[in-house]
Design brief:
This protein is mostly helical. The protein has one domain. The protein is built from 11 helices and 4 strands, in the order αααααββββαααααα. 38% of the residues are buried. The C terminus is likely disordered.
């Protein structure tokens, strides 16, 4: 899977992402999208669909139980209030032409579900649905960063993967299609959708009882880093508020928060440490 490949060979993350995106080019064919009937899903699938079901009124009753049983969470109400505030902030940054820009997306670019076959091609299980053109990229970035946090990846791995993600997103031949709105607008929407997915996944993990049913190690580690995971969403929301014309800066700030969520001290990069004197 892409998850295993990234954790085993973090230095190859950039090449893996480029290969994956090129391999899935056929799914982004605009003529194909026009020829396929977009299913009527009622907005209940995809990043925005899952986010809306959780944070738009009426909210599910279980949301009030977030954090129950997790002893490291001292103030559940403050946590829920912060998550609610962040969800509203993400809604505020929804593009005005959002509905007009919907296309048919792959819908399931979770790195756990992307498998590299022996012949060098990627296999996946698409969940096509109408969404913003940036939805697939955002989901992939979100799940990659969640993988780093949930697997307690070592610092060198975290730095290598986040550097590769940063370079891939900002490359001239990268995955963001500038379209008529321009590359900055595409990056802003990618950041917004990334934050949406992160907030939804974190809320779902926090709603799981710590013992019954037993959460996975990844879910457990994510909940224990909840404050720092929320920091990623916070960096994106505040960045879109304060620097709407500088999404590259917001991307960098969000990736710095990924480092913090992985317990890497801020402004300390493993590959920049001075070698000890002999």
């Amino acid at each position: 899977s892409l998850s295993a490949a990234v954790l085993e060979h973090p230095d190859r993350t950039g090449a893996l992402l480029e290969h994956l995106w090129a391999d899935l080019a056929a799914t982004r064919d605009p003529d194909l999208a026009k020829a396929v009937t977009i299913p009527a899903c009622g907005g209940r699938v995809g990043v925005e669909g899952a986010f809306g079901l959780l944070w738009h009124r009426p909210v599910p009753a279980w949301l009030d139980d977030i954090g129950t049983g997790w002893t490291h969470i001292k103030n559940r109400q403050a946590l829920l209030d912060r998550m609610d505030w962040l969800s509203a902030g993400l809604d505020d940054h929804r593009p005005r032409d959002h509905e007009d820009r919907r296309v048919l997306v792959h819908g399931n670019l979770d790195c756990d579900h992307l498998l590299l076959a022996g012949d060098g091609t990627w296999t996946s299980s698409p969940r096509p649905h109408p969404a913003a053109p940036e939805a697939d990229v955002a989901l992939l970035v979100s799940r990659l960063t969640q993988l780093l946090i949930g697997s307690a990846a070592p610092p060198d791995t975290v730095v290598a993967v986040t550097d590769a993600v940063h370079a891939w997103l900002l490359a001239d031949n990268g995955p963001l299609d500038p379209g008529r709105r321009g590359r900055p607008a595409a990056l802003r929407e990618t950041l917004r959708l990334w934050a949406m997915d992160t907030l939804t996944v974190l809320a779902t993990c926090l709603a799981l009882p710590p013992r019954v049913p037993a959460p996975t190690d990844t879910q457990r580690h994510t909940t224990h880093r909840a404050k720092h995971v929320l920091g990623i969403v916070d960096a994106i929301v505040r960045g879109l508020d304060q620097r709407p014309r500088q999404p590259e800066y917001v991307l960098t700030a969000a990736l710095v928060r990924v480092h913090a969520a992985c317990a890497i001290p801020r402004h300390r990069r493993p590959d920049s440490r001075k070698a000890p004197r002999r």
